[in-house]
Amino acid sequence: MHFHIITLFPEYFDSPLDCGLMGKALEKGILEVSRINPREFTRDRHRTVDDRPYGGGPGMVMLLDPLVQALNELPSGCRKVLLTPKGNPLDQSLAARLAGEDDLALVCGRYEGIDARLEELFDLELVSVGDFVLNGGESAALCLMESVARFMPGFLGRQESAGEESFSSGLLEYPHYTRPEEYAGLKVPDVLLSGDHGRIAAWRRQRSLENTFRLRPELLTSPLLTPEDLDFLQGLQRTRPGRNLYLALVHHPVKNKMGQESTTSLTNLDIHDIGRVCATYGLGKYYLCTPLQDQQVLAGRLLRHWREGSGAQANPDRARALSGGEVVSSLEDAVENIESLTGRKPRVVATSASGNGDLDCSQVLQCLDEDPVLMVLGTGYGLSDRIVQEADNLLAPLRLLGGYNHLSVRSAASIIVDRILGDFA
Ligand code: ADE
């Protein structure tokens, strides 16, 4: 593999390419690196490589011509990467794919950036090493080179270490330990001293799964998960604090079409569907809040039919779904009920299709570790302003963009709960 680095600072790479595994790989000829400085292609007295941006603004922009000439020096068929914060994120699978190339050019921007027309003139693949801004593409290019080089045969001492690393299996790595067996009272896990290779491999796999589940759950969609992995992950999922999450479906005070405070009637569909969400995600309870006596009687009858009556016999799954439902007169009653069940006052989080929420779903998940959370959903045209003002927080609306914004309350409940407690949330 031959890296062609296009940079205004070729000397930047001196020491990183001189030491450690990169240095050895260059010595052994596993890697080759050439550096092309666009400044070499300037013709003016000052060897100018940048100029002020059209349209004004701070900083300087890299000139096209020196870069074009530098890129024209590349061998034909050379894949070209431009390091930029707007690029696709560099990850292990991209590194593995790039490792298949014979020639790879890395274009490093400096200053405010590069004249945008370079991307029209050349087939450049934009790559970022993270959502932060560096002084230039050089340190990003070093990250990319190192991650790619590790896939080259002979680069690592023992070939298997590349496959066992974090991300290679789609998972984070298991923890490592070395001597001494005990340090400051902290012991190496017994299993690692057992000499039982089967048990050690199983322990390591589970720690990998656990680290990934807790730190980067979004990686767990990997198709490489075995049935044993899924069993183990299901066990972890059950330890999640879903039980701490409660829903309240408020029928009063809510807004009517004219924005006035009013009361709505219960809806059979909401009661069933929100119950099914609660059972699926293992929520604590859901409260049907209505001050109307006849509505309370109706809801009580409906819940009894499905939980105890002929409905329960015909459909035990539905009995389970509705088992978390409870009829209360007001939101205050729901709060009191949670307090008496858990001994803790719940954090009350109002929801709205619009407005400036001060909490998002991932923050709600963090709150659940400390206190119960009562997520308050409005029927009709949404919760009355009074409820929103008195709540501890307002959840950020599900859809900030887009004109039409009228999800049914049961749809909104499903989306909110999945964003908080979904398998890969
Ligand atoms: N150049 C400046 N910031 C960068 C980043 N985050 N990734 C890649 N190239 C960059």
What are the defining features of this structure?
425 residues, alpha/beta, Alpha/beta knot, Trp Operon Repressor, Chain A, 3 domains, six-stranded parallel sheet, five-stranded parallel sheet, 16 helices, 37% helix, binds adenine
Provide a compact summary of the structure.
The chain is α/β, with parallel strands linked by helices and 425 residues long. The chain folds into three domains: 2-163, 3-Layer(aba) Sandwich (Alpha/beta knot); 182-237, Trp Operon Repressor, Chain A (Orthogonal Bundle), CATH 1.10.1270.20; 241-421, SPOUT methyltransferase, trefoil knot domain (Alpha/beta knot).
DSSP helical segment count = 16
Structural class estimated from helices and strands: alpha/beta
Please state the second-level CATH architecture of the largest domain. Answer: 3-Layer(aba) Sandwich
Q: Could you give a short account of the major beta sheet?
A: 6 strands, parallel
Order the strands across the largest sheet as they lie in space: 15-14-11-17-16-18
| CATH fold naming of the largest domain | Alpha/beta knot
The portion of residues assigned to helices is: 25-40%
